Amino acid sequence: PVMGLAKQYARSMRCGSNLHQLSLKLINYDVKNESFPYSFFDSNLKTEPPGGRIGNAVYDDVGWRWPNYIFDSSEGRLNENPLYWCPSRRMEGRIFKNNMLVANYGVNESICKSWSTNRDGEFAGSSLSSADIRFPQQTLLIVDSGYTKINWYHVTDSPPRTLGKSMEDRAYLPGLAMNKKRNLLPEQEDDAKNGRHMNKTVNIGFVDGHIDSEKADNLFIEKTADGYKNLSPLWVPRKK
C-alpha cells in the first residue's frame, strides 16, 4: 500500500509538471499573439496542423486544436509526446486509449474559445488575452479534464442549456461528485467518477502561470437564485 501511494503521488507530481510546462507554452503564445490560442479551429481543414492531426475522426471534429498552436518542432509528433498525456489518466478502453484529446488536459473554453460556425454563445469567437483578465492568479487556464477543452457548463448540474452527446459535451472534471449523474460513455466512467489523483483532486494551471491542486468538488459551480456561484478558481474570467 505504501508503494502504491508513492507511485500515485509521483504520477500526480509529473502531472503538475506537465501542466506547468503547458501553461507556460500557452502564456508564451499569448505574449507573441496578444491572445491565447483557439481551443478548436475548424477552418482551413486541408492544411496539416503543426505536430500532426490529433484525435479520432469518428468521434472528434476535425480541425486544429490548442496543442497544435503551441507545438514546437523539436517535440516530434504531438501524439507521441508525454507532455500532453496525464500520467494518471484512467482510460484503458480500446476506443479511446490512444486518443490524446480524451482524458488528459483541457483548456478553459471561456478563455481559449472555439472558432466554429457550428457553435455560438460565450464559448465561440475570439480568444481572450491575459491582458483582458483582471485576476489571472485566480482564473483557471488548463486543468485535468475528460476532454481537450472544458468549460463551466461541464461542472454545474443546472446548465443554461442541455448538453448534447458529442465528445465535447461529454467533457468532465475527474472526480467531481456530480459526474455520477452525467450521461457518460462506459470508457469514461472510471476516470470521471473515481478521479485520477489522491482525494479526488485535480491539478490546475492558472493564467498567471502558477500551478495548484484542488479537490474536484471545489470547482463545482452552484446554481443560486440570482445566477451562478463562481468564486475561486474562476471559470468565467473577470475582465478589466
Can you give a write-up of this model?
There is one protein chain. The protein is 18% helix and 14% strand. The chain is of the alpha+beta class. The strands form 3 sheets. Strands 6-3-5-7-8 form a 5-stranded mixed β-sheet, covered by helices on one side. A 3-stranded mixed β-sheet has the order 2-1-4.
In short:
The chain has 240 residues and is an alpha+beta fold. It is 18% helix and 14% strand.
Features:
five-stranded mixed sheet, 18% helix, three-stranded mixed sheet, 3 helices, 240 residues, alpha+beta
The percentage helix is 10-25%
Q: Please report the total strand number as a whole number.
A: 10
**What is the average per-residue confidence, as pLDDT, rounded to a whole number?**
90
Helix run count: 3
Strand order, sheet with most strands: 6-3-5-7-8
Low-confidence stretches: none
Overall 3D form: globular
- Main sheet makeup: 5 strands, mixed
- The radius of gyration over CA amounts to 17 Å
Cα end-to-end separation: 49 Å
**SSE string, helix = H, strand = E?**
HEEHEEEEHEEEE
Residue fraction in strands: 5-15%
- SS-based structural class? alpha+beta
